[in-house]
Design a protein that fits this description.
Blueprint lengths: L1 H23 L4 E5 L2 E5 L3 E3 L3 E3 L7 H31 L7 H24 L8 E5 L1 H22 L4
Antiparallel strand pairs: 1-2, 1-5, 2-3, 3-4
Helix pairs in contact: 1-2, 1-4, 2-3, 3-4
Membrane topology: Multi-pass membrane protein
Family: Belongs to the PMP-22/EMP/MP20 family.
Keywords: Glycoprotein, Membrane, Transmembrane, Transmembrane helix
Length: 161
């Protein structure tokens, strides 16, 4: 049981770190052109220098929604980690980690909404660049989506023995 708890804890910490990296780094889309490589993220467009992400007025609300949901997912994931540690030391034997699991599933839902909006509105669209493909931050966000779901379900069924 201790090994299972330690494993879940390590995967949860890895998920929090990957969420931070995927939200902060600007490598959601990568493309090449005759002037070199460029990458765009949730915040900046980086070619040789980084500048504010050029977004049309109709896509501005979508970008802000993606930014907000990714930040919310980080917040809920950290809260779930703290709640797990608190419940680990205060929960009676035989009880389940319901609160931690519920918070982690809210984190999972925030990641799902944020990455889905980005996929629908921004994936493959980098104006003035050719050969666009997804960057590592986009892939990390989907990995965090999977991990947060698995961790949330494990917290719901896990008993403290």
């Amino acid at each position: 049981m201790l090994v299972l708890l330690a494993g879940i804890f390590v995967v949860h910490i890895a998920t929090v770190i990957m969420l931070f990296v995927s939200t902060i780094a600007n490598v959601w889309m990568v493309s090449s052109s005759n002037i070199g490589m460029a990458s765009s993220g949730l915040w900046l467009l980086c070619n040789k220098t980084c500048e504010q992400l050029p977004v049309s007025s109709r896509d501005d609300a979508s970008l802000k929604a993606v930014q907000a949901f990714m930040i919310l997912s980080i917040i809920f994931s950290v809260i779930a980690l703290v709640m797990f540690i608190v419940q680990l030391f205060t929960l009676e034997k035989g009880k389940r980690f319901y609160i931690t699991g519920a918070i982690m599933l809210v984190c999972w839902m925030c990641i799902l909404i944020g990455v889905s909006i980005y996929t629908a509105r921004f994936a493959g669209r980098m104006p003035e660049f050719a050969n666009s493909h997804h960057g590592y931050c986009f892939i990390l966000a989907w990995i965090c989506f999977c991990f947060s779901f698995i961790i949330g379900i494990l917290y719901l069924v896990l008993r403290k023995k």
